[in-house]
Amino acid sequence: MHRSVLRPGRRTLCAWSSRFLAVIGFGLLAAPSPAQAPGPFLGRPIYSEPASGLQLPPACQVDPSWRTSVPSTDLEIWVAVCDAQARVWLVRRQVIEVVNARQARLRFEVLDERIYPEETAGDSLSVQCTGPSDEVGYVVRGARWRADGKELRLKGPPRGVMRADAHAQKLVDMELGAVDCTRFPEREAMMKRLQQTH
């Protein structure tokens, strides 16, 4: 670390101040930023109706294979695209009304959000992963895939891994080697077709 020695005199003080501001400015520009600041969806309710399906905000898309539950909680993790930007939502699920044995009206609330404009939802940003004990509820970003029969598996380590902290109700980063990811393109396409029929 470079250390500046202060000496008496206004000229020296001004020079040190300018150098300090330059270093701070460089640090702000060079510091890595894994996600942009959260958008306008925090705290916003999203409803799901048996007859019409998920009622997403305008210009937003969430495919069925972009959602995963957090075990033993009422939380889910969604990968979404809104205004052409990929993002990850941690949402809380609430049953409003049970319609019958197989259908219910649901309300979801966005608790936390991370925005990744450089990622592709459902591809480089994916929830098709399990943790060390084969549990779901993990997200990878910067994923690359290789074909393995009818499956897709990770081709090298991703840029980042996230999971839900149920106590803090936030998304938290974790070690890269802690997950195993597999995608099933045929199943993803079938689930998307079923959603479009609603």
List keywords for this structure.
39% strand, alpha+beta, 198 residues, 14 strands
Summary, kept brief:
The chain is α+β, with helices and mostly antiparallel strands. It has helices spanning 10-30, 185-196, and strands at 45-49, 53-55, 60-61, 67-69, 75-82, 85-98, 104-116, 129-130, 138-141, 145-148, 151-154, 160-165, 170-174, 180-183. Strands 1, 2, 3, 4, 5, 6 and 7 form a seven-stranded antiparallel beta sheet that branches.
The H/E string reads HEEEEEEEEEEEEEEH
- How does the overall form come out from the CA principal axes? globular
Biggest β-sheet: count, sense, barrel?
A: 7 strands, antiparallel
Q: How much β-strand is present in the residues? A: 35-45%
Total helical elements: 2
Give the helix proportion (percent range): 10-25%
Name the poorly predicted regions: 1-33
Q: N- to C-terminal separation?
A: 60 Å
Number of E-state strands: 14
Explained architecture:
β10 and β11 (about 150-155) form a beta hairpin. The strands form three sheets. Strands 1, 2, 3, 4, 5, 6 and 7 form a seven-stranded antiparallel beta sheet that branches. The chain has a four-stranded antiparallel beta sheet with strand order 8-14-11-10, with no helix packed on it. The radius of gyration is 22 Å and the shape is globular. By secondary structure, it is α+β, with helices and mostly antiparallel strands. The chain contains two helices and 14 strands.
